[in-house]
Amino acid sequence: MKKFELQHEVEQFLYRQAELLDTRRWQAWIDLFTADGIYWMPPDASYKTWDGQPAIFAEDKNLMNVRMGRVLHPDAWSQRPLWGTNHVVSNVSIRKTGKNGDLEVTSRFHMLEMRRDDIRHFAGSYLHVLKKSKQGYRIKLQRVDMTNAQAAYDYVLQVWV
Amino acid sequence: MLKERNADLSRMVEPDRVRKELYTDAEIFEQEMARIHETVWIYVGHESQVPKSGDYYTAQIGRQPMILVRGSDGRVNVLYNRCPHRGNMICGDMKGNTGEQFRCSYHAWTFHHDGKLKNIPMMESGYAGTRLHRNSPELCVKRAARVESYRGFVFASLAKDGPDLKTFLGQSIVAFDDMCDRAPEGEVEIVPNCFRVIQHSNWKLFMENQIDALHPSVTHQSTGRAAHEVEKQIAKKAKAGEALSYHMLSAFATVTIDKWDNFQTINYPYGHCVLTGYMGLRPQDPDTKAYDRIMIRKYGQKRFEEIVGVNIHHVLVYPGLSVQSPLQQLRAVRPLGVGRTLTEIWHFRLKGAPEAIYRRSLAYYNLVNSPATLINADDLENFWKCHQGLSTDGGDWVSFARHHGRDIEEKGVVSSGPNMGTSEAPMRNQMKAWAQYMAAR
Predict the structure, then answer these.
(1) Chain A contact for B381, CB < 8 A?
(2) Measured between CB atoms, which of A53, A79, A156 is closest to B197?
């Protein structure tokens, strides 16, 4: 029963993470991270660390704030067109449980992005390193491996996936 | 029809403006691929991409898919990615190691790294009495007409005649000298990751934008402002130098239009260009000082000052390469169609330099050039919008008149006037080269 509850709690957390992105509540999304939290999207699945290597995203909270500030700026030209995303998160699996309640969780996502008249699809896996805190889980690391990470990008990624 | 068009071409480029069709006409695109990209020296890759025998990378020259491969003799070859038998592509992957030979996946013809035929199944029984025999040249994978490399940067030309690489590069060769000289060992090494981004516009828009000193503070202000705000927050609590990676972003807002005018563009024959200016990349933090000490030990004080004093923001090697030598990165343009262009973005390590110096280059690579870029996103948006507008009947010309008539010309080198860094001289220079190439027979 306890295991079931934990699974449920983690799933709810991951759904909320995706929901905040899709509803563009950027500050609330950034607040999900620990003070030293990192959002990382490696260019290849073989990468072991974000540190000192090429990365599609490798952002601490400062850089997340830059990205948020930019997206909210009225003259972020590329953000002017009608734009939205839709995440579906699934296959949630708890890989490691620490003594202090910290977790390593993997899952799969599919994100549809609509921008102007174009639809793009992105899919891949999440690895979340979660810290247990009084306010609930906080993200120490969100690793995003896209299945098409090595492909040529038709236009770019504007916000977090 | 085509002849008529050629006559038209000469009327399409004026000193301070060009016809919109240069960016939208599919037939002009085919001609410029043939006469420019598939004729001049095009950057293929770096020697350190293929360190071992049999290592290969595929590349694009104009419309031609090519292979860069290290031979067992240590030499670097550039081949057409096409089996001479039935035209099958030889390398289907972007990169890899082909071992001692290329082997076609269709009928098992094999080739040496230099393209020469190695073997064909049933060579004797199947081909006796036919037009083909073991030494027929048409049984070899076609090689690029000319291949030359400068300080590890490999270029190929698909035309057998033309200036040699050094003559072609002229003074734009500073891009490679500046990058390599900044390495204590005088060499750079490629980081094996390529970001590839597609823009929905003609390739010329990319080349023009790279040295358009007026656009950053307009196009990129949202990121510049946001980075500046965060930078101020960090500065309140951080030690000096810590916010450098944000400085690269905030400079897009804090360096205002009038300040960009302090920079200068220097325009060379063949359409090449240097934009001077530095974005504050010679700070006095401990990492930089440690690097400086290594460089001084290696080169001596005088030569060191010369090396780090080279004042470059961007070098354009027309028609397909943009180099930021002080940040050890380059972008190679691969036109996909008249309204579709791929850029490959690579960066390099300075051999013998401390890790911290590499990380500075890496920060710029990730923030400005990754597929999640905070900068190029708005360029790509503008490129798309330009392509939309240029495809309409709302006007016939594209203007490059800014500071026209105020350029300073000396021995074929055209500089923007004093305090005219935002001059459209580089666009005029590129179009001059374009017209010369297109008129050549």
Answers:
(1) yes
(2) A156
Q: State pLDDT tens for residues B197-218.
A: 999 999 999 999 988 888 888 8
Q: How many other β-carbons are positioned within 10 Å of the β-carbon of residue B30?
A: 14
Chain A nearest-CA residue for B235: A62
Interface contact A65, partner B, CB < 8 A: yes
Residues whose CB is less than 8 angstroms from the CB of residue B265 and which lie 6 or more positions away in sequence, other chains included: B211, B213, B273, B274, B275, B276, B415, B416, B421, B423, B425, B426
> For position B1, what pLDDT does the model report?
46
Is B49 an interface residue toward A (CB < 8 Å)? Answer: no
Same domain? B128 vs B192: no
In whole angstroms, give the CA distance from residue B353 to residue B343.
28
Complex ipTM, two decimals? 0.91
**The pair of three-digit structure tokens given for residue B337, joined into one six-digit string:** 């169609």
A156 chain-B contacts, CB cut-off 8 A: 197, 371-373, 376-377, 380
Residues B65 and B189 in one domain: no
The pTM of this model reads 0.93
Both B58 and B178 in a single domain? no
Cβ-based contacts of B366 with chain A (< 8 Å): 54-56, 58
User: B198 — contact with chain A (CB < 8 Å)?
Assistant: yes
The kind and range of the H/E element at B150 are strand B146-150
Q: Quick one: CATH architecture of A2-146?
A: Roll (3.10)
How far apart CA B386 and CA B391 sit, in angstroms, is 8
User: Over the stretch A83-130, which tens digit does the pLDDT of each residue have?
Assistant: 899 999 999 999 999 988 899 999 999 999 998 888 999 999 999 999
B273 at A interface, C-beta within 8 A: no
